[in-house]
Amino acid sequence: MMIVLSEELRQAVKNSKDNFVRLVDPETNAEYVVLPAETYAQMQVIQYDDSPISEDEKKAILVELGLSIGWDDPEMDVYNELDPRRENGSITR
After folding, report:
1. Which residues pair with 33 in a beta bridge?
2. How far is C-alpha 21 from the chain's CA centre?
3. For residue 27, what is the enclosing H or E element?
4. What is the sign of the dihedral through the CA atoms of 35, 37, 38 and 41?
5. I need a labelling partner for 20 at 20 to 30 A (CA). Which of 7, 44, 49, 69 fits?
6. Is the overall model pTM greater than 0.90, yes or no?
7. Dihedral of the CA atoms 35, 32, 42, 18 (nearest 10)?
8. pLDDT at residue 49, as a whole number
């Protein structure tokens, strides 16, 4: 289905700084977004997986995050030695 833009909507699209325009249906308060067809096509390529993540995936994310903020810095090793779980042997790798 193809609908021709009204002058008001055409101006809104033209003046849009972030390349999309939000619309609201006054009868239902439903919100819609008008965006360039090229942007929509790019979004169609993205595969979104909303299934729960596994324990291995959670661990991988935590490791990646830790590395990205410097937890692999040798100066951080002092915190390993201060971990009270080391005393009772409850730390596993």
Report:
1. 22
2. 21
3. none
4. positive
5. 49
6. no
7. 40
8. 81
